[in-house]
Design a protein that fits this description.
Elements lengths: L6 E5 L5 E5 L4 H23 L4 H11 L8 H14 L7
Antiparallel strand pairs: 1-2
């Protein structure tokens, strides 16, 4: 039984209903939405020029194993200083 928006409503024998999106169980749908939201957040941060600390940590672990990564505040401070040093076509 569908609701017309890609959702599927499943009723158990006791009358309890669960809604799933995309054919998977509700938890899988929630996981998919979390991943989509995280990807959208990362894209928005890139557009706005905000530094991606999680990507930095992943890179640092691969490229510089055994060395300490910068703390988040120091990472952000350095990235902002780099961005301000080369304004490019930014208006402000």
């Amino acid at each position: 039984m569908g609701t017309g928006g890609g959702e599927r409503v499943t009723r158990r024998g006791d009358g309890e209903a669960t809604v799933s999106f995309g054919g998977g169980p509700p938890r899988a749908a929630a996981d998919r939405w979390r991943r989509r939201l995280a990807a959208l957040t990362r894209a928005l941060h890139r557009i706005l020029g905000a530094p991606d600390y999680d990507a930095y940590l992943a890179h640092h672990a691969r490229a510089h194993p055994g060395t300490a990564a910068l703390p988040r505040d120091e990472f952000v401070r350095r990235r902002q200083a780099e961005r301000d040093a080369r304004p490019g076509s930014r208006c402000c």
